[in-house]
Amino acid sequence: MSYIKIAELIRGYLRKEGLNTSESSGDGCSFFRGSFCGFDAPHDTLNFSLIAENDVIRICVDSPISAIGHEPSMAEFITRGNFDLRFGRFEMSFESGLMRFVSCLNAFDVSVDEIRSTISDRLFTAVVMVDRFTKCAMEISDKGVAPIVANMRFRAKENSGRNRVEVEGADIAAYYTAERSI
Known about the structure:
Elements: H1 3-17, E1 21-26, E2 29-37, E3 45-53, E4 56-62, H2 71-82, E5 89-92, E6 99-106, H3 112-143, H4 147-159, H5 172-181
Antiparallel strand pairs: 1-2, 2-3, 3-4, 4-6, 5-6
Helix pairs in contact: 2-3, 2-4, 3-4
């Protein structure tokens, strides 16, 4: 499936979900950038991007905090956090301090309905991962917690029953409503 067709699917999904984005295209890619606003502390905004390139859709959600000044500790935290993830990964730029969660999905020879469903699931999962990651990363940057301890807390949040959200069929607003009520 061409990146143009994939971009049309992404555009339709974003419109259906009511997510406002900016869009740019070039060099065989389409970029969609946007943000989720109005969430509870510790952050107010999560920026995301969806990139359609060839037969791949890359989904990125940025952490609202920076690693600047804490690069070695954050790098260790990210390395430990990436261990044994089923899909996706955390990344960090040593130059800008940007930390984010990235997930890719293959759109080659996949039905349109599967792509729509998977975009929703992957974006939702990336938001959940960044939300949990950011809370633990802030313990490193604000309180000087050791990366191994922050990672243990991240894993505990990931595995705890009270924070577990079934991704399939769920939506981002439902997640944040549930998290605020806990």
